[in-house]
Specification:
Number of helices: 6
CATH architecture: 3-Layer(aba) Sandwich
Low-confidence stretches: 1-15
Strand order of the largest sheet: 4-3-5-6
Radius of gyration: 19 Å
Structural class: alpha/beta
Number of strands: 6
CATH superfamily: Nitrogenase molybdenum iron protein domain
């Protein structure tokens, strides 16, 4: 009887690839994927980098002209500029999922109208970046890889904070970061 109970319960264990995946993006839109995305288009360089960091770079079938890191991303089919992607080319690549940003509102609406799932991400701070990584990891069935990536990023930030402890403001490096 014990073995039967264990076998029956083993089908109830949640996995990254078990059943439909419901996602809510930064536009508060609900996107449902029947399974983890296998054919992905990234219109955002940071999304491309995250997808490679999650170990699914081989699933990226299209990327914007500006997705140039990691080096492997340079061999991906280009789908146009950041602000004006080529919708016909995107549709021809038959993606399961497209990653977009806030400035892609018209593109998001057009692709949705063609039945293509689009996840729009618009992080404004590091916590929202972590949340987006979790969302992306869920979309591609790599929850553990997402957790590991976030842990690594937090560790790197903690190392920087530790290195800066005790420094006067005049001794701290000045950093400019533009997206």
């Amino acid at each position: 009887v014990f073995v039967l109970v264990i076998l029956a319960l083993s089908g109830c264990v949640a996995t990254d690839n078990n059943g439909p995946i419901t996602l809510v993006d930064d536009f508060d839109r609900e996107i449902v994927l029947e399974e983890p995305a296998q054919k992905i288009i990234s219109l955002v360089p940071s999304s491309t980098e995250i997808l490679f960091a999650l170990g699914v770079g081989d699933r990226v079938v299209g990327a914007s002209d500006f997705c140039n890191y990691p080096e492997e991303a340079l061999s991906i089919t280009r789908v146009g500029g950041f602000d004006v992607p080529n919708l016909e080319l995107i549709v021809s690549l038959e993606p399961d999922l497209v990653f977009a940003a806030s400035l892609h509102k018209d593109t998001v609406e057009a692709l949705e109208g063609m039945g293509i799932a689009v996840l729009a991400l618009d992080p404004q701070n590091i916590q929202e970046i972590y949340a987006n990584i979790e969302l992306m990891a869920q979309a591609v069935g790599k929850k553990k890889a997402g957790e590991d990536l976030i842990k690594d990023m937090k560790g790197r930030l903690a190392s920087v904070a530790t290195a800066l402890e005790g420094l006067r403001d005049a001794e701290r490096p000045v950093v400019f970061y533009e997206v």
